[in-house]
Specification:
The protein has 104 residues and is an alpha+beta fold. The chain contains two helices and four strands; from the N terminus they run βαββαβ. It has a single domain, classed as Alpha-Beta Plaits, CATH 3.30.70.100.
C-alpha cells in the first residue's frame, strides 16, 4: 500500500470551512473512483493548516491521485484560497495497524 500526504499552509481561516466542504463534495468522490483507492482523510490542524492523507494500492495509483488533486484545485479555482503549493510526501506504507471492528 502507498500513501500520499499533502500539507497546505497559509490558508486564510475564513476559507477553511469552504475548502473542507468542497473537498468533501467534489474532491473525495473523484479520488474514491480512482483504481487502487483505499481511503482518504482530511485533517484541519488549525492556524491555516490543512493536511490530507490518501491510501492507494500502488505508487502509480498514488501518483494519479496527485494529478487529480492538482486538477481539482485548478477546476475549483482554489489558487487564491491555497496561496502556497502543498508539501507532498508519497511513499510505501511499511508499518501499519488498524483497529479490528468488534460486533456487539
Amino acid at each position: 500500500m502507498f500513501a500520499t500526504i499533502r500539507r497546505y499552509d497559509a490558508i486564510d481561516q475564513e476559507h477553511v470551512a469552504e475548502l473542507i466542504k468542497k473537498a468533501d463534495e467534489t474532491l473525495l468522490p473523484s479520488l474514491s473512483e480512482l483504481p487502487g483507492f483505499n481511503g482518504y482523510y482530511l485533517i484541519e490542524a488549525g492556524n491555516g493548516i490543512v493536511s490530507s492523507i490518501g491510501f492507494f494500492d500502488t505508487a502509480e495509483h498514488a501518483d494519479e491521485s496527485a494529478r487529480v488533486a492538482s486538477t481539482w484545485v485548478r477546476e475549483q479555482k482554489l489558487e487564491n484560497m491555497l496561496p502556497n503549493a502543498p508539501k507532498i510526501t508519497t511513499g510505501e506504507v511499511v508499518v501499519q495497524k488498524t483497529a479490528e471492528l468488534v460486533q456487539a
